[in-house]
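Onboarding guide, step 5: your first structure request.
Type a short instruction followed by the sequence, for example:

Predict the 3D structure of this protein.
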Amino acid sequence: MIWDLYILLSSGLCLFHKSYHKNRWIDESIISGFLTAFAAFIKSFDSEEEIESVVMRNIKFVYSSYKDVLFILCADKNEKDDMLKEKLRQIKNTFIDMFSKKLENWNGDISVFRNFERIADDILRTQIKVAIIGKQGVGKTSLLNLILGENIGEEYLPTMVVDIKEYNIPDVNARIIFWDIGGQERFRPMWGRLTRDTDVILFVTDSTPKGVYESRELFKLVTESLDSAKVILIANKQDLPNAMPPEKVGEIFGLKAYGTVAIDPGYRELLLKILSAALKDLVQKKAFTAVQSAS
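The system replies with C-alpha cells like these:
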C-alpha cells in the first residue's frame, strides 16, 4: 500500500503532501529523518531521470528529483518496486508539466499546488468497481449501507435501476465505486450494461431455501456473462428462522458463501475484512497491469 506522497524543495520546504494511510502505525520519525537526509543526498544524483528506492524498517521510500524539487513516495516495504517507480514517474512528469513555469517565479505561496491533489489521487489510487447484484428484496441496499457505515432504514425501498456510491476502505489504496443494482425483473435486461468493466461482484441471496434455489438460477445467468470479475457470494438474512447455514448455501452455489445479517451493525467488520482481502489483491494486479502497459 502507498502511504504518503511528498513533493519538497531541496531546502526541505514541503510543496505538497498527501497521506493515503488510515489507522496504521507508522514511525513518523523515520519519515522525517529520511526526508531531511534526502534533501542533502539528492544533490549527488547523476541524473534527474533516476528513480531509486530504499527500505528502512517497514517503509519503502521511492524517490527522484527535478532541479531542486524532490519527489518521494512512502509505501509498505513489500510493495513492488516497478509499480511504485512507474507511479512516481507519472507524478513527477505531471507535476513538472503543470508547475515548472510557476516555480521559476514562485512567490512562496504553497496554495498554488492544491489542485494537484485530485491528479495525484487519479495516479496513485486505482479505481475499483464493485457491483452488488441479487433478486429484489434480498438486502442489497442494506448491505451497502452496512459497508458504508450508514443508517439502515427499516422500511423497504427498492432500488430504481442503480445507486452509485464511493467509499474508501482502510488499507485499500483505491477509489472503490459501489454500484447497487436494482433486482426487479424489469431491470435485469440492463444488468449486462451495468456490470460492464466490473472488478468485483457481490452476489446477494437471502438464506431461505426458496430464496437460495431461485437465486442460484439467476447466479448462473450472471456469472456466465462475466469475463474476469471476482465473485463474492453473500448469504444474507441469516437471522430468519428457516435460514440455511452459509456452508450449505455455498455448496448449492458451488462457491464459498459468507453469512450476514445486513441490518445488524455487528456484521460490518466481517464485510470490510472480506472486501479488504479481495480488493488489496485486485489493486496489486491492476497496478502491475498498468505498469506493463506503460512499459
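Each response can be followed by summary notes, for example: The CA atoms of residues 233 and 257 lie 5 Å apart.
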